[in-house]
Queue: 2 jobs
Job 1
Amino acid sequence: MVHEHSIEPATATVNRLSVRNIRKKFGSLEVLRGISLEAHDGDVISILGSSGSGKSTFLRCINLLEIADDGEIWVDGEHINMIKKHGRNVPASSKQVDHIRAELGMVFQSFNLWSHMTILQNVIEGPVHVLKRPRAECIAEAEALLEKVGIAEKRHAYPAHLSGGQQQRAAIARSLAMKPKVMLFDEPTSALDPELVGEVLRVMRSLAEEGMTMLVVTHEMNFARDVSNRVVFMREGQIDCTGAPAEMFSGESSPAFRQFIGNFRG
Amino acid sequence: MVHEHSIEPATATVNRLSVRNIRKKFGSLEVLRGISLEAHDGDVISILGSSGSGKSTFLRCINLLEIADDGEIWVDGEHINMIKKHGRNVPASSKQVDHIRAELGMVFQSFNLWSHMTILQNVIEGPVHVLKRPRAECIAEAEALLEKVGIAEKRHAYPAHLSGGQQQRAAIARSLAMKPKVMLFDEPTSALDPELVGEVLRVMRSLAEEGMTMLVVTHEMNFARDVSNRVVFMREGQIDCTGAPAEMFSGESSPAFRQFIGNFRG
Amino acid sequence: MDFVFILQTMKTLLAAVPMTLALFFLSIFFGGLLALLIVWMRVAKNPILSNFAKGYIFVFRGSPLLIQMFLVFYGLGQFGFIRYSFLWPFLREPFVCAVLSLALCTAGYTAEIFRSGLRAVPVKEIEAARSIGMSGFLLVRRIIGPIAFRHALPAYSTEIVMMVKSTALASLVTVWEVTGVAQRLISQTYRTMEVFLCAAAIYLILNFVILQAMALLEHRLSQHRRAAPRLS
Amino acid sequence: KDWKTVTITLEGAYAPWNVTNPDGTLGGFEPELAKYLCDQMKVECKLVASDWDGMIPALNAGKFDVIMDALSITEERKQVIDFSIPYANTHAGFATQKDSPLANAAGTGAVLKLTPGQTGIAEVEAMKTAFKGKTIGIQAATVYAKFIYDNFGSIATVREYKTGAERDLDLESGRIDLAFDDAVYFGTTFEKANGALVFTGPEFGGTIFGIGEGLGLRKADTDLKAMFDKAITAALADGTVKTLSMKWFKTDVSP
Amino acid sequence: MWIVEVLGFGQKGWGGLLVAGALMTLCVTIVALLIGAILGTLVAWAKLSGGGVARTLGNAYTTVFRGVPELLIIYLVYFGGSGAVSAIGRSLGYEGFLGLPSFAAGALAVGIISGAYQAEVYRGAYLAIPKGELEAAEAIGMHRSLLFRRIIAPQVIRFAIPGIGNVWQLSLKDSALVSVTGLADLMRTSQVAAGSTRQYLLFFIAGGCLYLILTSLSDRLFNRAERRANRSMPSSFGQA
Ligand SMILES: Nc1ncnc2c1ncn2[C@@H]1O[C@H](COP(=O)(O)OP(=O)(O)OP(=O)(O)O)[C@@H](O)[C@H]1O
Ligand SMILES: Nc1ncnc2c1ncn2[C@@H]1O[C@H](COP(=O)(O)OP(=O)(O)OP(=O)(O)O)[C@@H](O)[C@H]1O
Ligand SMILES: [Mg+2]
Ligand SMILES: [Mg+2]
């Protein structure tokens, strides 16, 4: 267990994802105040933290939906190039942005399925139009994926006709279809009822078992404890403490984290 | 603990709410297949059940947002009169419907605050315009209520400017302002994040302590176990089993219920 | 009722329907293209472009089409530099001018309609697309365009119906479509009501057909909004 | 019916027959003639402006009693309204740009009196060769339109305008080569064009375009027609029409 | 400098008449909008809640008055309406002509058209009210008239404001057609001035500019109303 306020050196080796000293301000509000993190092959990292601590912003900075004011990001060893424009950080190449994003799967809290497409169309959209792969091949893979997350029979339905848990699983399938190197999950279960939570967690667990690298922002302590191999606790835009779940939940953590999990009777 | 498939006789005594053999079809889909229930003064009844089992429909039938095809309802001893029109059940008197509804408070899952009114205006709307009570008096009471649910400082804000938990509490205050005999809650916490859930449950708990009769459709097992004095488990439009929470959660319940709470490690 | 006269009138008016339709389709087509350009400028970050688009929309929505058409047709010809430019062979033609001013006008309206469609595209669905690596034209073509178009469709149907009626003004610039022919018939026969009722019937039928077609399109594009098919 | 007041309508935008002054009052040849006629008949006249498009139906609906708007007396119009005797009869002619090759066609400056149905006129035949392939602008649905179609429809492109004013703008800009219309109307147009436009070929007069311009009246009001006929006869006899005509048209349009 | 003189307010200037025309246009449009508001509410109500017959009539109204050229409707009202009034007058023993005044006929005609568009606006606005808010009102025992007055009407007005702004814009321009009734509105005044002076381009441009001024004034008014009505919404909600 480390109290992590120092900067990790980013070694561009087998690291799937490497983030160094990310900072982000919204106006005068400093939301991220220097975050560093590394994820290796097969890592499942749970990111915990109270509301407003900057968890979503952190994920959004990684896949460049927000541009960090400062810091470095490597995805699968590739460094994301930034230049300064009018005193603000902007990506040097929008081609690289698209390409990096295609390697990072993002599953949003509110699913964000495209409402004008069926589930199958949602899933093949990226492979066919972004990766420009043959349609027939993509459909076959998409059907296998939908099978895997357990909603194959809904493939011709529109998102609005699916329950929340089904939509969430469709969103996961959509991300997986891009064969990302790393998956980012933003509170994948918080809008679901207990039964649906179970379904989604089951899918994520099987992904973890297959060795997918994942960053998961979650309020599900059970998931953090039982599935992930590392827990990161964020507080006021910084990493307050991090460590293996067994250590963290057994009490060897910061006082803030102990207070945070106070209500949790695991 | 009773397996409840028989019809309870409706004794019009101190029962706040009494429902006998309610049935409801949507088209060919039989959503409620004969439900009976009694709630006495101070009862807090949790209604559990998986998605689609008819919980919401049941609450909506009680306050006549849906008209049951069959069955009897008494509110505070008063029988709701129905007549047949074109072969369908309709309330005999719309005056009675308005009057009954004023005695039943309903808190919707999606709050349904009136978006064009401030929180205070939302709360006094019913007392002033439906109960026709003096405005000044209503305002004083409303402010006390808002104080009680902890959002007094937001009274001049519009619903859209409040967080989910604040909106939910405003909706509760709006219902309470009508001084209902019975409160119906439809999943009052399912759209909230874990911290807000706590706030809302705290308010409900204090209502329970004051002796308010409540029917609560919920997914919060902790609430069902710790706050309510009776648990009803619905399954496929029927009451599968019912009983005191202690008995139900300790395993003396139907196999379906045990499976339902399987994931719950209270 | 003088049926012979009405029949004769109908025959005369129907002969002008192709002209009305030609004006309509061409101006809707070019107006739509222009509207896309205007709306692109309107939402652009560049203040020069967006202010130009704002001004364009203001002028063409804010003044009567009659005046616009008059100025395009009779006004442009007053300027020597236009009369001696390469454009004159085109602008000399009344039909071209009629289509041009109809298209300019509808582009102003249509741009506003498309913009409200754009505003209705959920930001989150755009983010989802970005997060799989979509950007630029691909994003517009696959996600933003279809959603915005679907949302704009009802308002756009209304605009299209108004365009059918607006073609009536083309007789001002010597393009004789249905209303112009009707007015000419009236000044020959002085039977205002009969002739106008015939014209009205033609427009009503045209618009009814167009509205039905648009409703069909709307129906086809809103599968995802309808209730799910019953699984029985 | 006892006529004490009579409502007369005119367009107020057809210089120099009738115009609106910047202060909103009506002026021109017809309002001044109307004043004389009403004084003759000892009735009070009210002049109201209204739109040309709705004039004849509005007369029959009873919105006013008389139309005085350079209304040519024609058979078609006689089917729906009645006319007084004519108070003017103007010539018609071709106009073109001053430096156009079509200017100064044979017979320019002459006046040709024609009767209805007359064919084989030498001057017209000459113009047909001169105007071959050109574009002639006319005001739609006028007596002149028929004349142009009958004589030039086969050799030239005829373009119909809703109003003469629009046609004149196109003549100036060169979209059309020739225009055919009322000669006194052209008089004002030429004045505004500062000499850029001129007549070409002879002016056409006689009864070919009808017997002239008269007042439009409802068929039922025969008594009113009789009163106006009498007043117009007087105005023609004592030279009032001629005086007003010289004032406004710089030529005599008395029938 | 003759332009200044011709468009000015002096003895030879048409400024006064043009401004009077603009005011007339404004009056016709305002009255038409009010007539349209009444008709539109009735038709929207018929289309939403009426039985089969009312709904069919409502649909017919909106289809016909949106689908038929405006000019024709103005003719129908102007001449047809006068005919009707005269017939009533005659049956009461009044001889002679009893017409709808030009202003009334023009405003009524434009109002009828405006009503068809407003009906659609109100219908859309009603459908935009979250269903839950209506249920919440029913659930505390509001009866229908109270529900309409307290919950539906205020929200319909709020949602309808942008749409009404568009209808206003349409009516402003439809009112240009009432000149066939002889009403000296802005369009006809421009045409009269153009015909009397033979300065067509000048007066059409002047007329166009006056229309644009009317538009920008009313735009400002509607934007303010929209902001006011949306004060209960988050600031980003659909605002321009
Ligand atoms: N686009 C933005 N503009 C301004 N402030 C923002 C923006 N996005 C987020 N913030 C602010 O940044 C802070 C962190 O937000 P963030 O969404 O990252 O929190 P979070 O940890 O994901 O919280 P939650 O658990 O509630 O989702 C919050 O105070 C939020 O108000
Ligand atoms: N208005 C309606 N028309 C047709 N079917 C309906 C209607 N309302 C509900 N249903 C159906 O009735 C069944 C029960 O619905 P209900 O909303 O009562 O379930 P629930 O127990 O509240 O579920 P949840 O926990 O998901 O809210 C569902 O299958 C639903 O599809
Ligand atoms: Mg978040
Ligand atoms: Mg429910």
Note: Chains D and B do not touch (no CB pair under 8 Å).
Job 2
Amino acid sequence: MTPFDRADPAPPATGCADTPPVLRERGQHAVFCGLTGIIWLHRKMRDAFFLIVGSRTCAHLMQSAAGVMIFAEPRFATAILEEQDLAGLADANDELDRVVDRLLARRPDVKTLFLVGSCPSEVIKIDLARAAQRLSRRHLPTTRVLAYSGSGIETTFTEGEDACLASLVPEMPATKAGSLLVIGSLPDMVEDQFARLFAAMGLEDTAFLPAREAFALPAVGPGTRVLMAQPFLAATAKALEDRGAVVLSAPYPFGAEGTEAWLRAGAEALGVSPDHITAAIAPGKARAAKALASAREKLAGRSVFFFPDSQLEIPLARFLAREMGMRLIEVGTPYLHRRHMAAEMALLPDGVTLSEGQDVDRQLDRARAARPDLTVCGLGLANPLEAEGLATKWSIELVFSPIHGFEHAADLAELFTRPLTRRALLAHAQDQSTRGPEPCASS
Amino acid sequence: MTPFDRADPAPPATGCADTPPVLRERGQHAVFCGLTGIIWLHRKMRDAFFLIVGSRTCAHLMQSAAGVMIFAEPRFATAILEEQDLAGLADANDELDRVVDRLLARRPDVKTLFLVGSCPSEVIKIDLARAAQRLSRRHLPTTRVLAYSGSGIETTFTEGEDACLASLVPEMPATKAGSLLVIGSLPDMVEDQFARLFAAMGLEDTAFLPAREAFALPAVGPGTRVLMAQPFLAATAKALEDRGAVVLSAPYPFGAEGTEAWLRAGAEALGVSPDHITAAIAPGKARAAKALASAREKLAGRSVFFFPDSQLEIPLARFLAREMGMRLIEVGTPYLHRRHMAAEMALLPDGVTLSEGQDVDRQLDRARAARPDLTVCGLGLANPLEAEGLATKWSIELVFSPIHGFEHAADLAELFTRPLTRRALLAHAQDQSTRGPEPCASS
Amino acid sequence: MRLTVWTYDGPPHVGAMRVVTAMRGVHYVLHAPQGDTYADLLFTMIERRDRRPPVTYTTFKASDLGADTAALFKETARAAYERFRPQAMIVSPSCTGELIQDDPGGLAKALDLPVPVIPLHLNSYQRKENWGAAETFHALVRGCCRGRTYEPKPAGARPTANILGPAALGFRHRDDQVEVRRLLGLLGIDVAVTAPWEASPADLARLPEADFNVVLYPEVADTAAKWLSRTFRQPFTRTIPIGLNATRDFLREAAELAGVDPAPALAAVEAEARMPWYSASVDSTYLTGKRVFIFGDATHAIAAARVASEELGFEVCGIGTYGREFARDVRAAAERLSLEALITDDMLEVEEAIAAARPELVLGTQMERHIAKRLGLPCAVISAPVHVQDHPARFAPQMGIEGANVIFDTWVHPLMMGLEEHLLTMFRDDPEFHDEAAPSHLGPAAPAPVAEDTADAALAWAADAEQELKKIPFFVRGKARRNTERFAADHGLSTITIETLYDAKAHFGR
Amino acid sequence: MRLTVWTYDGPPHVGAMRVVTAMRGVHYVLHAPQGDTYADLLFTMIERRDRRPPVTYTTFKASDLGADTAALFKETARAAYERFRPQAMIVSPSCTGELIQDDPGGLAKALDLPVPVIPLHLNSYQRKENWGAAETFHALVRGCCRGRTYEPKPAGARPTANILGPAALGFRHRDDQVEVRRLLGLLGIDVAVTAPWEASPADLARLPEADFNVVLYPEVADTAAKWLSRTFRQPFTRTIPIGLNATRDFLREAAELAGVDPAPALAAVEAEARMPWYSASVDSTYLTGKRVFIFGDATHAIAAARVASEELGFEVCGIGTYGREFARDVRAAAERLSLEALITDDMLEVEEAIAAARPELVLGTQMERHIAKRLGLPCAVISAPVHVQDHPARFAPQMGIEGANVIFDTWVHPLMMGLEEHLLTMFRDDPEFHDEAAPSHLGPAAPAPVAEDTADAALAWAADAEQELKKIPFFVRGKARRNTERFAADHGLSTITIETLYDAKAHFGR
């Protein structure tokens, strides 16, 4: 498979008879492309470097989306295509070799170099997969060169991570041993927490993909049970299945309920007894319940509207509806993978509108009409909606923050309560100022 | 002697037949009191602490003169006298003991504690010398307690350092050995340079007072030859003479000429041959000559007016007149010690007006009438004079900066050229702006 | 005796200097030794004034004490009058002058100068700078209004107000009064006299003509405003227009005193103010609940607490003042926030309180900037005493509409920005983009190590718990440590484990 | 291909967005894939705008490429018109759009919409953001002025000018135009139209009515101003009023174009400006000769060099721009300072140049803030691209009288203050008040280690010389090291001794 293959665009729905109706929309999308995943991937994999082959727009996207806030020299760069590169593709390959040589000479510490395809490189059909093979031959054993596409004509936002991880799967060593593999980038702290929990259940050798060092890949084989920590990893899951692994179906580890179900799915697949699991998760589960109680007071009964962004929308909506008591008005997702979302969709309350794809203007019309208490949306929409009087939660934060597992269930809830708290605080104060003057001066 | 004795207020002029006329003035002084010396003394002596016994004004002076710019907790504090302290002096002593106990409990690293008298403590006659003896008995061997007065009714500005160093002299161990003792606080870097130069002449054991650790005092005795690095140390010099030392007469080490004469006076007194001295100082002397040449171009022929400040005025005026070719209009000094200034006054050009003491309003009238090219004055006068169109050099910088010796002769000159350079730069630019508009936009 | 490292207030005669230096046509003869002349540089250097303060010091010496210091005073006062020809003079001893008991007031009176000479009684061993300023301003107002009587204002005239309080060396006094003048303009109220700022004794004599007084800084103007109120039935405003809510309140209060409609002015605030949008815009969400410690003069501390909690969504975790004269007001403000006010002028006590509160932001004076720096905390300055850098060239009021904009920028600037906080949270072990990095928009700097002492010696952290604590980003780590230790203490635990850490987190919330 | 870590300029269609987002009544239909919609957040987050940019993206996908992307464009453009009802539209492909060669201009024309539709040709693989802004503004001005002809102005009317250039996401455009409007007011000149800032297509059509144009940002307005000059005989100003000298020049230039007397306005500058006094006051003496490195867009880099050298007394030790369109002007400015201009958009080249120059202050863009932080150098921002923090709530112009005040505060702030420098020099070994301490008025921070590499590998420092070098305060140590090494190299020395250090000091001066 080339790195530009993506998951089957419409796999048959499985195991979920009463799925809610889905509004499929076509129109302007307002979602990041897959390149954006590099913002966290280049920080997570400390020996990796990401070279986007694209336009000035790609470079500008990368620094505008988050880059200007990161002061260290990032472990990503863009090989910007110029007029002459568009003419002859053979030359473009020479140019690419030259750029990669210069880059690796400057950064000899890079052990995995990802060539990342973009819209322009896809449209003019530069074959980065072949280029990666050629360059790998040249730079191994020091540096492995891989390729994937983060182009916005093929991937949305988090699908970039999927394509990246999928490109790693063929490189993973084979194993026959039975063990658990958690896939999806997690904050280091969260990864440690899960590792501790699984270890408490006797699963000491639980592996994570991506690892903090991309070069040290975990092994995979028929004994591997894959637990998805993020919902957007269809291509990676499929690639692991191609290597013989079994992908487990479970809700995602958001909120106490999701975390418990997710941990159980992983542990049970490796033969841990339910009682053992119950004992291991008891303290964390109790803490989560306690910590979530006050958030629930602030959120219960409030309505929420999700614009499509990261594919985390459905699991998060499930958490907000079931554990926080919120009313779901519309849950937009850029892309709905029914199989990997089956366990989540089964938990959604009746009557929720799911939407897939986007016509941003019409969706804005719906949001304005519904006037939800909270709107979860991207950074391009958040301030305009705030200015219209709607409280918003910027969705990209949900990808960056530690929100998985028991210990962060309340942090996750807090991301949704905070905008409401803030609005209440500021509005209250302004009302208050109709009081008489403060007794500031006296003696 | 008590720490509050000061040098003879009017010693007979010695060895200087043709001294210039001195304008003695009486009126408002605008000069710091002796407390201010603590600003550099508490930094120079790293194991010392200065406890001012005074009023809120003393505390405010200390932090306003330089304190707010020093972020670390300073090694000085004020025991502020309050209404009840004014009533009974016995109580005041108890109070002082209490404050010192609390202070030393908090700062057990303090090895020398100076009790510093102020205007109020002098007027109500708190006997700090006796208090110091009492407290020393209590806190030795950990902490030695000494006392001196920095009060503004008895000392001006740099006389505070004199009183402080004088209080150290009785504590110095005795010696019969012949060696050189340099007195006066110097920046560490300058102290190192002088030590290197004397070592090059074979005077490896040249000592400095104050040392960087106040507790480790140099020895003194009949073999000691005292070289004054600062002109304002009359009481210290006298105290050293009382211990048998011989105080050398020399110009002060400002400028190439002063530095050479000063080094020679010290080295010759210890029996170093003139040729040896000449050889040792040759490289530094050559460097100073070279470095001073360009400053002379900027200063020669310009006039300068000194307001009284640190008693450095006469040596600096000598340097500016003889090496920089400046015209001296008036050289004010808060206090003129004719013996210690004899070698300097002999070098002053004819016709200079010296003034001692101050009537600041009348002196301002004279400065305004003379419109000097450069006015050297304190921080209270500098900006007002600048606003009247007179270029000024703030004099306190001359006490803080490394300006002694060959390597800093040009730095000293630069302190005087810089205000002139700046005025020229800014004025020139404003004239320039009568040119046509800049060609900023084109193509 | 009081052991003092740094002082917040200078001596009372410095307060007197702040008043006369702001004014025109007044001269101050101070019976003081030469060291006291340092005070000139406060004005010429820290505030960059282009004139010497109008002060003549007698600069007596030890040798004068035996002789006739009273004669020295008279001679100095006469010479000062001859040279400066002021419209009025004030005279007083400084702290040392008080001790020699020469009675400058009586001596000056004996000179029979052709202008009012007002003696000040400043009690240097009891009182301090702000009190001295208030007393001096009061004395000058009384002295200059002598002989004036209450006259009812003619009906139908345009309403007028005086602005009272701006003095030399204040915190943003220069610009606050410009902004407040603009606010009064929005209400259609003319400003009769601003004082002491650039007012002459003749201007002070006109004070009773205005309809009411606007007190900008009670520390300076409260005493005088009360006297004017008693004597000439002039009401005065009590709201300090710092922050937009207080600005709205101020407009309503002034409108009521002037008998005008505040609505157009209030509408102008809504139209012009940028701070509400900056505070509501989503990048500011992360400001919510940040714990701030506030210390300063009473006026600015109380105002800062209101702005912090109502307009920026911070949580005030400590408030205090060095101004004992207004302690009651600060205590009341603290009570509204369920806090106990810290009333002290001992900087070491303030340091202890800040260290114990472990705030995420300190709002204070130059002294708290010292403290915050030592503790590795972000800090913004909200009150005198301040640094030369806090007398900026640019227009930088704290009051009114633009003042609120300035406050937003100034208080938010020291903090790490929102998205940056999250990146740090996610990848704090990254060798290049790590936890010890300073906020990216600040200078070439890494934060000083935050003081991380365990408060309670009876508690021990297990090694893995200490390790886990270090995974929490530094800007909230102090709070996490404090909460965990409090939780352990409350539950009688002697060792803190990872479980304790997370139990405490669940207990206290984020 | 060009290897790029950070970019100064975005793609040209972002320049187009900056123009239409600043305007009212214009809509932009961009033929682009979904990823390009990121550009919205530049405006809503970095500039905190409360509205979405007026841009509709076709967001074509891979699957559309086989189908009919042209139809998608037409459908999108028609829907956008229906929804937003703009007075005018612009259309263009983004970089990916260019590759599929759909001709949005032709397609839009075929829709026959009832408003002008202006196609842009932005050459995404050759051109960049500022060029795109200038081209877009020019195209809009031409499009909206179609059919207008030159009409002589009636004699005796009050002079009028347009202000051209302020756009969205610019560096302080919001506030500069307010200040420039005030300057024109001082001259008695009315502002007819400001564009693109809040101008509608109808406003653009009125541009030819003014007497002349004020070009604030040549990067945006130069092309349009030249076209207006050719077409309607409208002269335009060439002075950018950043700094007081340039402000004076600007007033003279505008006065001449308007036929009025500049004297009253010039007098107002002298009366109101605080920057000259702040720069002349003695605490600023230490600024003299500080070596600054300047990089930014051409307009701000050239202006900064003039302000730095003429008004603050700095020494400019390097100047450059990423704006190749105005390279000639920057080269000329560099030549006046006896420097060679650095013309590059490669941030790594800029970093090398700064490291080699070892300046004491960097004035640059957000990118130079990255660089300065890494090199441990103080930095102030003078040009786009900038951070969210450089779009402040408070009034913060760079131009005119208040702009000069703002510049003084902003550029001086990162530096150690004068007296503090001297205390450091004297006692730099003091354990409490040491060399690695940050400037006392800056945050809880210690400066990052200054890069202290020896430039020339053939040189060795003797241990005691290295020791002696360390006694020099860090803020001038870089220069001392550079001078000493240059001296050693020039004199063929291979080892640097203490004597070499002092010989070099004597040779180069301080």
Note: Residues 86 and 124 of chain A are 7 Å apart (CA to CA).
